[in-house]
Amino acid sequence: MPSSKTSRSSTHAAASKPAARKPVPKPPKGQPSHEVRIIGGQWRRTRLKVLDKPGLRPTPDRVRETLFNWLGQDLSGWRCVDAFAGTGVLGLEAASRGAAHVLMVEQDAVLVRDLQDNATRLKASMVSVQRGDAVSALGRIPAGSVDLVFIDPPFDGPWFEPALKAATRAVPVGGWIYLEAPVAWPADALAALGLQCERHLKAGAVHAHLLQRTSAQSVPESAPTPTAPSTVTFAEGDTP
Fold first, then answer.
1. Burial of 216 by CB count in 10 Å (0-12 exposed, 13-18 middle, 19+ buried)?
2. Distance (Å, rounded) from C-alpha 219 to C-alpha 205?
3. Can you give the pTM of this predicted structure?
4. Which CATH code for domain 59-213?
5. Which of 134, 132, 198, 143 is CA-nearest to residue 168?
6. Where are the alpha helices (DSSP H) in 51-133?
7. Interior CA angle at 211 toward 208 and 207, to 5°?
8. Which of 18, 42, 94, 233 is most solvent-facing, going by the fewest CB within 10 Å?
């Protein structure tokens, strides 16, 4: 029989041993996993939920801050299209900064519902939400009728070139296109579309481009595929 001393020591050791930590449950698919915030304008610091969905990749705060520094902060009167809206943070950021109208296009029904809920919550009468294919929606917009198009599609899809072509048609000469992509688009591929890269930054795996339409010529049926990094590169946080 063990001594009382041994029993007390064993009991003390068992009591002092830290309890095993319970694993933190992951949110189920389709439920909020984190948030992003609007960083400027009338809805500054407003938080938006981000659903746990494959391919959903909201533009980070620092990248958006740099983008709107490039654009001059105040978008009063601008007409914008958030072509692959996702969380809608790009389009809502533009609306917060004075855009007269923002069309958000999204294919996923759950995300469309969230976009509509956020627009209602913010009383964003200048925002309209449309469910559908982004490239087709851009193709239906009257030529040269919008000032800025956001293009941030899932990186594993074939949408980049078709979306750029449709967006180039939608903006006038001097109009703007914001593009997020997994590679930097080279100058020759952009020039074939009538575009020029005015600003570029790399943040992690994301290449962010601010493009301007420079040519009134119609966009060709095919254009060079980007194969090399652009020589126009700016550090994150730079302003024009």
1. exposed
2. 28
3. 0.77
4. 3.40.50.150
5. 143
6. 61-70, 89-96, 109-121
7. 15
8. 18
CB count in 10 Å sphere of residue 224: 14
Crossing angle of helices 89-96 and 61-70, rounded to 10°: 50
Helix/strand/coil for 50: strand
Q: Which phi and psi angles does 189 have, rounded to 5°?
A: -65, -40
What are the boundaries of each domain within the chain?
59-213
Summarize pLDDT for 42-99 with one digit per residue, the tens: 999 999 888 877 767 788 889 999 999 999 989 999 999 999 999 999 999 999 999 9
- CA-closest candidate to residue 232, choices 214, 216, 211: 211
Judging by beta carbons within 10 Å of its beta carbon (0-12, 13-18, 19+), is residue 103 exposed, middle or buried?
A: buried
174, 213 Cβ separation under 8 angstroms:
yes
Token pair, residue 48, equals: 């938006």
- The predicted-structure confidence for 115-124, as pLDDT tens digits, reads as follows 999 999 999 9
Residue-level length of the chain: 240
